[in-house]
Design goal:
By secondary structure, the chain is an alpha/beta fold. The protein contains six helices and nine strands. Strands 4-3-5-6 form a four-stranded parallel β-sheet, with helices on both faces. It has a three-stranded parallel β-sheet with strand order 1-2-8, with helices on one face. Helix 4 links the parallel strand 5 and strand 6. The mean pLDDT is 92.
């Protein structure tokens, strides 16, 4: 009897035949940065991990499609800890804060960025817009009322379970990638 394997997360971590459920991080980040560019931001920074670069690829794609320059001073990689957003912001400020918006690869890091900037006299979003990634309710529904990409884990799991239910009794392994990108939620940390 076959046992179906389901991997939830980034698609690149698994090359085996299995069902892969992903929040499409590259497409979701692309949508986030496209939102910022559409809102008139022209110097968009990136703060995030250096080990998983799907979101960074989406960031670069959006900047390229909007004809915006990728400024190396606006790219801060190696911010891998969830509680390390302030360090990323300090590196941007140390380079002269040459951006009008910052896309941060998680909501928790984005809140750290906002805290750091406001403690140094910057106003969000008047001086610089900040956008996160995850859509955590605690940051959407209470200060700082973060602009973010809300991921739909429920929808992703529901679709995966539906495919499994329809495949029940079939004696073959499902080898399928299911990606559902996040939805941009405009809030008070961007104009």
């Amino acid at each position: 009897r076959l046992m179906q394997v389901v991997i939830i997360g980034y698609r690149s971590i698994c090359d085996m035949a299995c069902m892969k459920l992903s929040n499409a991080p590259q497409e979701s980040a692309y949508r986030a940065v496209s939102f910022l560019a559409h809102k008139g931001y022209r110097n968009i920074a990136f703060i995030g991990e250096d080990s998983i670069l799907h979101k960074f690829a989406g960031y670069k794609r959006a900047l390229n499609e909007y004809g915006l320059t990728i400024n190396p001073d606006n790219i801060i990689l190696g911010v891998n800890s969830q509680d390390d957003g302030a360090r990323g912001a300090s590196l941007l400020v140390g380079k002269g804060l040459k951006c009008d918006a910052i896309f941060v690869d998680t909501d928790r890091k984005a809140v750290g960025v906002i805290d750091y900037l406001t403690k140094r006299g910057f106003t969000v979003p008047a001086d610089v817009g900040v956008m996160g990634y995850d859509g955590l309710d605690r940051f959407l529904e209470a200060p700082p009322y973060l602009t973010t990409v809300k991921l739909s884990h429920d929808l992703l799991l529901k679709q995966g379970l539906s495919i499994l239910a329809n495949h029940q009794g079939n004696n073959t392994m499902i080898d399928q990638l299911i990606e559902i990108p996040g939805k941009v939620i405009a809030n008070k940390t961007t104009r």
